[in-house]
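Bug: token stream looks shifted between consecutive jobs. Job 1:
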Amino acid sequence: MRDLSRVPLAELRRRVHAARGTRRLAALRSALEGDARAGARSLAEEIEKQLASDRAERRRLSRLFALRRRLVRDGTRCVAGVDEVGVGPLAGPVVAAAVVLPDRCALPGLDDSKRVSAKDRARLDAVIRQQATAFAIAEVWNADIERLNIYWAALEAMRRCVAGLTVRPDHVLVDARTIPQLGIPQTSIVQGDARDGSIAAASILAKVHRDELMRRMDERHPGYGFARHKGYGTAEHLEALRRLGPCRIHRRGFAPVAQLSIPGLR
């Protein structure tokens, strides 16, 4: 890169902030190293911090896929990650997602959906759907939750989403559960959505899908605040239950709902 010492600092700042990719940033840093201006040195330091952050993120993502690499080295061809959301709410479905990611994927910021902002979840959801070899989402609603109980309903959602994949995985990585009647080797990982990349990707898809469902339920059943609390037992939700009674998507077997129920369904 040519000498930048005569380029105004405002323009240099614009170039640094517009730069994309490690190589471009590294080239800018090298070009700035010989610039005697304090502002240029400050920009070089800013770039170095960004490059260090990028290296740390690559190492973190590499650790997230360490188990998958070991499975592939041992002969596994197709690995799926599975996770569920919605066990705790008082209303709405439990949702599970299964994701098969390609050998090479670019998912900066990938993490447990609970540790990712709504904006970044939406971004990651779109990128995962675009890059995934296959993915499937399953919903289990009130009737089955009441029939099975919530623990088994969550496992049923997981089983359904694996069955819904367009490619059959050779191994399934599951967040803290063992899926019954799966017929595929599986590994249960405690806090798997924070420790494994495939499970984290599944947690993102499941969370974004369920949140959108609950926004639609808010339009269908106004007054409860489903778009805000997504069915969880917040003070707002409990107050609405006391005032309105349960609607059709409330889980009648859950104690807070049963205790506040009145005849009739909205």
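Job 2, same session, no restart:
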Amino acid sequence: MENNKRPKRRIKIGYILALIIVIAFGAVVLKLVLPSSGTSKYGDRLEGIENYKFSEKAQKKVIDLIKGKEQVSSCKIEVHGKRIDVIFNVKKDVSKDDAKNIANESLGAFTEKVKGYYDIQYMISKKKEEGIKVTVEEGKEETKYEFPIMGYSNKKNSGIVWTNN
């Protein structure tokens, strides 16, 4: 009878050891895969950003410059890590080139220090744009819109590159 208990005990010990190994392995995998609660979603990419603050006063300067144009109906700035999003709407009668000129002019309101650290992205839209009817195929028409337009100024560039001309 004693011989029957030994194999059962060994099997139980084997199961317990296997369970401990699986739990330990799972904990190691979770530690590697999931970030710890103290890290930023940007990791260490924002190291030193405190030396390049884009203050609210500086943001207001850019917004006031853009809103000061009579063609602009609204403007806001959002900062996401090392990227600054300048988002504004133009009025109905504003051309795409005029909107781009407003953005190009506003780039001068940023300090060289900010332009050298951040990437600046422009998103320009127009409310109530009517669009232009274009014939795509025989009997089929499509409405083409000029807006929204997007531009991007990399920290290594001095101007804005427009994505959809």
